[in-house]
Amino acid sequence: MVRIQPDELLSIGAVARRSGASVPTLRYYEERGLIDAVRTHGGRRQFPRHVLRRLAVIAAGQRVGLSLAEIAEALAPLPRDRAPTQREWTEMSKRWAQTVAARIRELERLAVDLDGCIGCGCLSLGRCTLFNPGDEAESEGPGSRWVRASMRGVGGSERS
Question: Containing domain of residue 155, as a range?
């Protein structure tokens, strides 16, 4: 492991100010393994400066609608003891671009469905993926399975 010089470490408060993330959020991200801190002899968290780049990527991932689990999966192959290279970031962003493109397609399909529902005001009972006469979906458990199933049928895979 690379040894980090003390002048390359930032306090949790400094990282919070510079990243825009709250101190509790930084603690949570560390617990989830998204970022790493170094502990002082007194147990205080200090972060290497390159953690600011990881935090920027986490914020970007959240902005495009990725879950923390998806962000963690994308960050997993990246180095933890240094800032990733441009090539490493590019590889990760290519995978995210595919995820975003799939979400755009999913949202476009949803927009078409919503237009039909909003347009008629009766939920287009003959073709609506939300209609549940007699609460038939109750036996399938919680969640909007019918909507997800209809989206698979319209144009591709379901996103979990």
Answer: 105-160
